[in-house]
Automatic annotation (TrEMBL), chain A:
Gene3D superfamilies: Cytochrome C biogenesis protein. The keyword rRNA-binding does not apply. This is Cytochrome c-type biogenesis protein. The keyword Heme applies. The gene is ccmH. The chain crosses the membrane at residues 129-150. It comes from Swaminathania salitolerans.
From TrEMBL, chain B:
It comes from Swaminathania salitolerans. Residues 45-183 form the Thioredoxin domain. GO terms for biological process: cytochrome complex assembly. Pfam families: Redoxin. InterPro entries: Redoxin, Thioredoxin-like_sf, Thioredoxin_domain, Thioredoxin_ResA/DsbE_sf. SUPFAM superfamilies: Thioredoxin-like. Keywords: Cytochrome c-type biogenesis, Disulfide bond, Redox-active center. It is found in: Cell envelope. PROSITE patterns: PROKAR_LIPOPROTEIN, THIOREDOXIN_2. GO terms for cellular component: cell envelope. The lineage of its organism: Bacteria, Pseudomonadati, Pseudomonadota, Alphaproteobacteria, Acetobacterales. This is Cytochrome C-type biogenesis protein. GO terms for molecular function: oxidoreductase activity.
């Protein structure tokens, strides 16, 4: 392997890492449920006895729990956290699921007690408008900026005959000075 | 040579942005110091204000238990305090609670505690609690929206939660936030 090819290859690794980090960050729910390439999110259900016997119900309970904030750790879902309160809330979610309540009913039960803050992804409202609209607004602003920059960078119109004659004169003068 | 005013404006924009950001950070930090803003506080404005349904057994020798009915029929403001003998901030809060108990009845709820531990804890230096309910599995705490101990709620006659603190109480907080609300209720 030559030195040149080594030198070309070296910066590829950090760039790749940045790209991977970006993908995992932008992946829907990527920051919450682990990296997209890990087959299953690592849930913190501490004991099999916590789980519901019906796999379909258990799956629903896990999905609901992944949307609820652990109020002790605050940036983890109750499914991810092993805090005592998270364990209790997982248990409560499973009781409600086993009773056959809908997702909306369970989320309402939780927000009635712990406020909107318990939702890991806030609902769309006037207060959260900027939060949700920011990606679109940023994209529009960026496109607008790019459009104005590109328009400004357009090549200047060709010189008219009068200007061409003047340019030739100037160049000729320059040539006489130099010689 | 003059810089076009448009370019000057574009150069000023990042400076102004950084300035605004700095101002915002300073405002957050200063209000955190004054106690006006707590980033870890659970937002309480969405909390439900009527009392939740619950019924708790008492702690024999230290206090009678209580439920939603008894708490809403007191006829006077009550401070409900969630505590546990295993919780260090609760130990530190006890002194303030004993002082507060001279102005306002305090009803305690022992969160995930063994009865004998809770009894030893509250009786050690004199109990501030008029009543004590046991919440061994923490399910009543969830009904109240408690995220940890200690937490306190001001309950007004008729069973309405008027105030909630998700941290240990001190004398200053009590005088500034809780006492005015109890006076309003009278």
């Amino acid at each position: 392997m030559t030195g040149a090819s080594l030198r070309q290859r070296r910066p590829a690794l950090p760039r790749l890492l940045v790209l991977l980090a970006l993908i995992s960050f932008l992946w829907p729910g990527g920051t919450r449920t682990g990296f997209p390439w890990s087959a299953a999110p690592a849930f913190a259900v501490d004991a099999p006895s916590e789980m519901l016997p019906d796999p379909a119900q258990e799956k629903r309970a896990e999905a609901i729990g992944a949307r609820l904030r652990c109020l002790v750790c605050q940036n983890e879902s109750i499914e991810d956290s092993s805090a005592g309160l998270a364990r209790d809330l997982r248990h409560v979610v499973r009781i409600h699921v086993a009773r056959g309540e809908s997702d909306a009913q369970i989320m309402r039960w939780m927000t009635q007690r712990y406020g909107e803050f318990i939702r890991l992804s806030p609902r769309f409202s006037i207060a959260t408008f900027l939060l949700w609209a920011m990606p679109a607004l940023a994209l529009i602003a960026g496109l607008g900026l790019a459009a104005t920059m590109l328009r400004r960078a357009r090549p200047a119109p060709p010189l008219d005959p009068q200007e061409q004659a003047r340019l030739a004169d100037i160049l000729k003068e320059e040539g006489e000075h130099r010689s | 040579m003059t810089i076009p005013s448009r370019r000057r404006l574009l150069m000023a924009l990042p400076v102004a942005g950084a300035g605004a950001l700095g101002l915002g950070c300073w405002k957050i930090l200063s209000s955190m110091e004054e106690g006006g803003f707590d980033p870890r506080a659970i937002r309480t404005e969405a909390m439900r204000h009527p009392l939740p349904d619950f019924s708790l057994g008492g702690l024999p020798g230290a206090g009678e238990g209580f439920d939603t009915r008894t708490l809403s029929r007191t006829g006077e403001p009550v401070l409900v305090n969630f505590f546990a003998s295993w919780c260090i901030p609760c130990v530190a809060e006890m002194d303030a609670l004993r002082k507060i108990a001279r102005f306002l009845p305090i009803w305690g709820i022992a969160y995930k505690d063994r009865p004998e531990d809770a009894r030893r804890f509250v009786l050690r230096d004199g109990s501030p609690y008029r009543r004590i309910g046991l919440d061994p599995d923490g399910m009543t705490a969830i009904e109240w929206g408690v995220t940890g101990v200690p937490e306190s709620f001001l309950v007004l006659p008729g069973g309405h939660i008027a105030w909630h603190a998700s941290a240990a109480l001190d004398a200053r907080q009590f005088e500034e936030k809780v006492l005015p609300l109890t006076r309003e209720a009278k």
